[in-house]
Specification:
CATH topology of the largest domain in chain A: Cytochrome-c3 Hydrogenase, chain B
Order of helices and strands of chain B: HHEEHEEEEHE
Helix content of chain B: 10-25%
CATH topology of the domain at 10-109 in chain B: Beta Polymerase, domain 2
Number of helices of chain B: 4
Strand order of the largest sheet of chain A: 1-2-3
Strand order of the largest sheet of chain B: 1-2-5-4-3
Radius of gyration of chain B: 17 Å
Number of strands of chain B: 7
CATH class of the largest domain in chain A: Mainly Alpha
Oligomer: heterodimer
Largest sheet of chain A: 3 strands, antiparallel
CATH architecture of the largest domain in chain A: Orthogonal Bundle
Chain lengths: 401, 165
């Protein structure tokens, strides 16, 4: 959060340019992003994003909580893909502890992660289309998003702040009938994607507004730290689910959509294709869902079942110890990255042998991807800024943390 | 995945390509190495960091072409107090590498790597803002998260969680 008192980008800007302030309260910045634009007529000469309006000091908060308490904080960072954050954090702590996660928990994690990706991409598609002026797409997207949120509610009791993945497995057994509901959704969803595509993909207005806008090359995308669909639409063929698999992703068959064009339209196509692939992965996870426990066999780390607490003394003691004192994690450090809907979501955790993390840092994809925005917009028209912001799909909670 | 003890002996690790390459370039630049939980960490002496990352990026075999993250750890009241952490990724080799630079608490500054990786711009600004580490040669070293007139660096360990009241 920067120069509130100092609107000019640099002293001595030429007379023919003017500085325009966009945000932080601007509907199409998807949160509280402020952009300082130096413009020459309708053309952008220079752009400076100004962030930090949603900075909550979440990394500092982590240091004051027990490891298991931190799971709920991770939801609140990137609020469109809480389960992805849960997963990245849990995997990092599990790596520190050396925990083995049962197959069913891994499969559930993959399935819910892909549903989260669908959820996140639907919000992106709806709001992106709304920014460009296609109002009705929003209603279609939120119709299906509602179905996904209902699935989350079924499984975790919460629509958005799920905290369903815990260190060592899952919080609860999925309820009776849950898999039938997921099946119904994944069977119906591909035809819904066709619907969105019939509204947009060949729509002449949509194409003219997006094609050739916000262009970025693969070299620039990598140099500026972009990952995920933003980089893949520029031809960077890199997906952590395929290239550095985690949580059992190596057992799934899927394609990684890549485009070499690098404009806003390419990013749209890549994400729509990802909707289909995610649905496919969720379908495979559903078909191959193993039976068995959902929590690792680690009584000092994983909370015991409620039933056991009522009958077994040890379970009661472990429960009391974990809740009141936490569990210790051997002193070390790990960096665990997962493919979030926006790109590489990484958790860097330093432990010092106490029940609280010494340092947690999130490498958030939105933060890094946002650095590409000036490159996409400089030399372009003001009206295209909105299209470019929408196309990199930032979540300000993730940017500012 | 059962835990194996960390390997900290340079002799045992020198077969790792990244470490071998750095040692061949300048053995004094590498102060320490650690292999733990399948992750390799190399400690670089402060004056050499920019050249070390440039070499790792440009090496035709290693090709660490992506800087995933820059962050910092504060070991207050220990000395050297700060550790600046770089997470590198080689997409060609599907391999990660962590570089670390130790900095004394009295003089926390080191060279910026923005000239090697433009993406370091915001990462380093964040570390500057929240830890007060000075990156020399950074083109635009301003606060990024906190307001410009903020006092102190919130992620330092001597900064209270509730802030100063």
């Amino acid at each position: 959060m920067g120069h509130l008192t100092q609107p000019l980008l640099e002293p001595g800007a030429e007379d023919r340019t003017m500085t325009l302030n966009m945000g932080p309260q601007h509907p199409s910045t998807h949160g509280v992003l402020r952009l300082l634009l130096e413009i020459d007529g309708e053309n952008i000469v220079r752009m400076r994003p100004d962030i930090g309006y949603l900075h909550t000091g979440i990394e500092k908060t982590f240091e004051a909580k027990f490891y298991q308490q931190c799971v709920v904080l991770t939801d609140r960072m990137d609020y469109l893909c809480p389960l992805t954050n849960n997963l990245a954090y849990c995997l990092a702590v599990e790596k520190l502890l050396g925990l083995e996660i049962p197959a069913k928990a891994q499969w559930m994690r993959v399935m819910l992660n892909e549903l989260t990706r669908i959820n996140s991409h639907l919000v992106w598609l709806g709001s992106h289309a709304l920014d460009i002026g296609a109002m009705s797409v929003f209603l279609y997207c939120f119709r299906e998003r509602e179905d996904v949120l209902r699935l989350f509610e079924m499984v975790s009791g919460q629509r958005m702040m799920t905290s369903y993945f815990r260190i060592g497995g899952l919080a609860l057994e999925p309820p009776v009938g849950f898999f039938e509901h997921v099946r119904k959704f994944v069977n119906a969803f591909p035809s819904k994607v066709d619907e969105y595509e019939s509204l947009l993909t060949q729509n002449p207005i949509w194409m003219r507004r997006l094609k050739g806008v916000g262009h970025i090359t693969a070299e620039d995308a990598l140099a500026l730290g972009a990952t995920g669909p933003t980089a893949r639409a520029s031809g960077v063929d890199w997906d952590l689910r395929r290239d550095q698999p985690y949580s059992g992703y190596e057992n799934f068959k899927f394609n990684v959509p890549v485009s070499n064009v690098g404009d806003v339209y390419a990013r749209y196509l890549v994400r729509v294709q990802e909707l289909r692939e995610s649905n496919e992965i969720a379908c495979q996870a559903l078909d191959g869902m193993p039976e068995g426990p959902i929590k690792a066999d680690a009584p000092k780390v994983v909370l015991p079942d409620r039933e056991k607490m009522k009958t077994q003394m040890e379970a009661l003691i472990y429960h009391f110890k974990i809740v009141t004192e936490g569990f210790t994690v051997p002193a070390s450090e790990v960096y665990q990255a997962v493919e979030s809907p926006r790109g590489e979501m990484g958790y860097y955790i330093v432990s010092d042998g106490t029940p609280k993390p010494y340092r947690v840092h999130m490498r958030s994809p939105s933060f890094a991807n946002l650095q590409t925005l000036p490159k996409m917009c400089e030399g372009q028209l003001i009206a295209d800024v909105v299209a470019a912001i929408g196309s990199i799909d930032i979540v300000l909670g993730d940017v500012d943390r | 995945m059962p835990l194996t003890p960390a390997i900290t002996d340079l002799e045992q690790l020198k077969d790792r390509p990244a470490l071998a390459r750095l040692l061949a370039w300048n053995a004094t630049a590498v102060t320490e190495a650690r292999f733990d939980r399948d992750e390799l960490t190399i400690y670089i002496d402060r004056p050499f960091i920019r050249e070390a990352v440039a070499r790792l990026r440009d090496d035709q075999e290693l090709r660490f072409n992506f800087l995933a993250d820059v962050t910092c750890v504060d070991w207050h009241p220990g000395e050297p107090r700060f550790e600046v952490v770089y997470e590198l990724l080689s997409m060609a080799r599907k391999e990660r590498l962590r570089l670390k630079v130790r900095l004394p608490g009295a003089d926390p500054k080191l060279d910026s790597v923005t000239s090697v990786w433009p993406s370091a711009n915001w990462f380093e600004r964040e570390v500057f803002d929240l830890f007060g580490i000075h990156f020399e040669g950074h083109p635009d070293l301003r606060r990024i998260m906190m307001p410009e007139n903020w006092k102190g660096h919130p992620l330092r360990k001597d900064y209270p969680v509730e802030g100063y009241r």
